[in-house]
C-alpha cells in the first residue's frame, strides 16, 4: 500500500487527522491535494478546501473533479461569476453523466439571431426546474427547444420555448447549436445580483385557505448525498404526521404538473432538499426546506433562512451537532404558531 492509499484508507475509516497528515505529505500529487480538499470541506474548513482544490488544479489543469468541487465551494459562498467557469468541470465528474451532442456545435454565448437552439437538461429533476428560468432570455433571439425529463414536459407548457422528452438525435437534427441548461448561467453572466425569478409555471399557489401541509421526507436514493439529506425512519414518521405525503407513490401523480396541482391547494410544504422543493417554491407556495449539515447543496448558500433562487422558500438548517431533532422541533413550533398544526 503506497502513501496515498494509506491516507485514503484513513480517510475512509474516519481517522481524519491521520488522513490529513498523509495527504499534506504529498503536496505535489494532484490526487492527494484533491482528497485533502474534500476532507477539509467535510470538516467545514471551506477556505482551506478552496486552497487545495486550486492546488490540485494547478498540478493537473485538465482534471474535471477538482474544478467541479472548487465551483461547489465558490457557489456556496455566493461567488457566482468566479464559480461558473469551474462548474463546467461537471462534464468530467464521475457519476453525473452529463450529456454531449456530437452532431452540433456548442453555443458559447455568440449571437443567436434567427438560430435554432437545443437546450439539453441535465442532472436531476430539481436542476432542470431550477435552471429553466434562464431559457426565456434566449427565446428573444432564437427558436429554443428544451430537451428535459418526460415527467417535466407538461409542467413547461405555455413557455416561449418548446419542452420535449426523448433521445437527443431527433431534436438535434432540427437545431443549429446546442447547450447544456447548467451552462446557461456562465453564458449569460449570472450573479446573485441579476438572478432571474423562477420560471412562471402553468400552476400557481392559491394561497393559504385550510388546505393543510404537504411533506416530503426522502429524495432519490441514487443521489450522492441522499444518506444525509433524506430523513431517518424516526424523523420521517414524525414529519409524515404533519400532513400529506407528496411522494408520487403516495399521491398517484404521474408527473410534476400533477404534483404542482396538488401543492397549489396546500397551505405550505415541508420537504427535504429534493425536486419537490424546487417545484413548490417555483409556484410560489411557502416551502420549508430541511437542510442537512453534511453534503449541503451549493444553491442554498451556507447560512441564512432565505434563498435568492426562491422568494417563498424558508431554510431550516442542521446545527454543528447535526441530527434532525432540533430542526424538526423548530419547524413544528413554527407550524403550530401559524395554525398549521
From TrEMBL:
PROSITE patterns attached to this UniProt entry: TPR
SMART domains per the UniProt record, alphabetical: TPR
Alphabetically ordered keywords of this record: TPR repeat
TPR repeat placement: 30-63
Domain of life: Bacteria
Gene Ontology molecular functions: glycosyltransferase activity
Keyword Oxidoreductase: no
Keyword Thylakoid set for record: no
InterPro entries: Glyco_trans_9 (IPR002201), TMTC_O-mannosyl-trnsfr (IPR052943), TPR-like_helical_dom_sf (IPR011990), TPR_rpt (IPR019734)
Gene3D superfamilies: Glycogen Phosphorylase B, Tetratricopeptide repeat domain
Protein name listed in UniProt: Uncharacterized protein
Species annotation: Phenylobacterium deserti
Amino acid at each position: 500500500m503506497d502513501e496515498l492509499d494509506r491516507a485514503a484508507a484513513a480517510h475512509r475509516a474516519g481517522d481524519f487527522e491521520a488522513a490529513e497528515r498523509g495527504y499534506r505529505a504529498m503536496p505535489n500529487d494532484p490526487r492527494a491535494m484533491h482528497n485533502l480538499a474534500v476532507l477539509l470541506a467535510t470538516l467545514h474548513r471551506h477556505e482551506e478546501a478552496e486552497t487545495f482544490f486550486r492546488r490540485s488544479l494547478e498540478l493537473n489543469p485538465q482534471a474535471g473533479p477538482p474544478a467541479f468541487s472548487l465551483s461547489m465551494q465558490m457557489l456556496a459562498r455566493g461567488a457566482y461569476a468566479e464559480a461558473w467557469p469551474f462548474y463546467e468541470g461537471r462534464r468530467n465528474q464521475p457519476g453525473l453523466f452529463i450529456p454531449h451532442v456530437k452532431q452540433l456545435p456548442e453555443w458559447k454565448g455568440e449571437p443567436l439571431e434567427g438560430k435554432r437552439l437545443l437546450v439539453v437538461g441535465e442532472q436531476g429533476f430539481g436542476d432542470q426546474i431550477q435552471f429553466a428560468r434562464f431559457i426565456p432570455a434566449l427565446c428573444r433571439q432564437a427558436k429554443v427547444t428544451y430537451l428535459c425529463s418526460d415527467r417535466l414536459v407538461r409542467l413547461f407548457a405555455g413557455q416561449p420555448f418548446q419542452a420535449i422528452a426523448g433521445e437527443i438525435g431527433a431534436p438535434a437534427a432540427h437545431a443549429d447549436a446546442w447547450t447544456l441548461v447548467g451552462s446557461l448561467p456562465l453564458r449569460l453572466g449570472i450573479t446573485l445580483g441579476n438572478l432571474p425569478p423562477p420560471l412562471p409555471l402553468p400552476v400557481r399557489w392559491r394561497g393559504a385557505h385550510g388546505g393543510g401541509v404537504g411533506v416530503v421526507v426522502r429524495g432519490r436514493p441514487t443521489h450522492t448525498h441522499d444518506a444525509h439529506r433524506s430523513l431517518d425512519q424516526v424523523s420521517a414518521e414524525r414529519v409524515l404526521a404533519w400532513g400529506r405525503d407528496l411522494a408520487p407513490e403516495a399521491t398517484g401523480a404521474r408527473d410534476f404538473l400533477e404534483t404542482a396541482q396538488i401543492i397549489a391547494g396546500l397551505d405550505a410544504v415541508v420537504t427535504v432538499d429534493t425536486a419537490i422543493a424546487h417545484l413548490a417554491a417555483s409556484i410560489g407556495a411557502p416551502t420549508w426546506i430541511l437542510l442537512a449539515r453534511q453534503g449541503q447543496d451549493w444553491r442554498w448558500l451556507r447560512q441564512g433562512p432565505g434563498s435568492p433562487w426562491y422568494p417563498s422558500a424558508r431554510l431550516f438548517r442542521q446545527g454543528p451537532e447535526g441530527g434532525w431533532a432540533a430542526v424538526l422541533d423548530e419547524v413544528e413550533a413554527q407550524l403550530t404558531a401559524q395554525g398549521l398544526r
